[in-house]
Amino acid sequence: MNAPVDLLITDVRIVSCTDDACPVSPSSFVAVKAGRVEAVGPMDRLPATLAAASECDGQGALLTPGLVDCHTHLVYAGDRAREFELRLQGASYEEIARAGGGIRSTVRLTREADPTSLFEQSAKRLQSLMRHGVTTVEIKSGYGLSLEHELKCLQVARHFGERFPINVRTSLLAAHALPPEFEGRAEEYVDEIVHRIIPEAARSGLADAVDAFCETIGFSPAQTRRVFEAARAHKLPVKLHAEQLSNQQGAALAAEFGGLSADHLEHIDEAGVQAMARAGTVAVMLPGAFYFLRDTRVPPIDLFRKHRVPMAIATDCNPGTSPTTHLPLMMNMACTLFRMTPSEALLGVTRHAAQALGLQATHGSIEVGRQADLCLWNIDHPAELSYAIGATPLRRRFHNGIEHAM
Ligand code: DI6
Ligand code: FE
User: Where are the CATH 3.20.20.140 domain residues in the chain?
Assistant: First the structure.
């Protein structure tokens, strides 16, 4: 290492997230070049001759990979605070959805919003995520539900990756709900997704993956299969909202298509977990939605452990069931509500979340050659990230080795 590096971070205690136990290293350094980790090691091995364009003294603080939020719906217009009030008066999420509220009310506002307004409204949520330590985010469409408006939402998400210091992965979720103009004609809407929306999302390069909501109030397994076949024909990987409100065997379907992840999973059975294990499909826990809907059925964490299915944790940021951008709070909820361990929670927002996006070779851990997405925290032990309710002890955040004011 003779040529100067771009950034040298010294005196940090590193949780690299390469080891499942999340051990903390002794005082160490990280050297960054061209946006990637060039070298990592204990301070007493820091080459005396190493020159750096900029330096950061970590003062003994804890360094983790930048956080990865692998499941959000953050591009939408308006809010659903009124629906929240109705639910407090006793209406259920499904009743509101069946009565034309819920997702559809957000669809109406999102369709009406021009791209600039949609960008501005959604950027507030994106910036909030960043302030909580997120350096990679997955953003789904799903509130447009037509070719024009789905692409508009994906375009806004793509622009975020160009305008903000964050890595954005997009998922086309046209199969989120039935748009009102297709009332009673679900198969025809699936035709529209299969023959027009997926091909155009693939051709334009606006979608990195295809997702669907496989549920009694969403799309049936047979319809989801058609969506997945179209995704496969266009070489797009799949993921799925599965087993959130009932067991539709959606996780096994996602696994059959080599899915990156199956998400929610409160109602999954052991056969579904085994199918995920065989396919290497990540189980994404969304405790914010569980909490907000006052769900009582906990996803079978022991089965994921038993079959060694990697578990990720995400915000599910959306106006109806998880209006949050607080990923560390989701770690707390995953521990408190689902009994995950703080180490599992940390892997769930780093290495396993990166895997849920197919980014395990480049993101989610601190290793030579990986993207230099790093968070420096004002804590002594990694469990504090899960322990503190609603705190974000973020001190500094680096994306591709560059620190940005937030
Ligand atoms: N499951 C969810 O929890 C969100 N979407 C989905 O498929 C809810 C979306 C909404 O209510 O707006
Ligand atoms: Fe979701």
Answer: 69-356
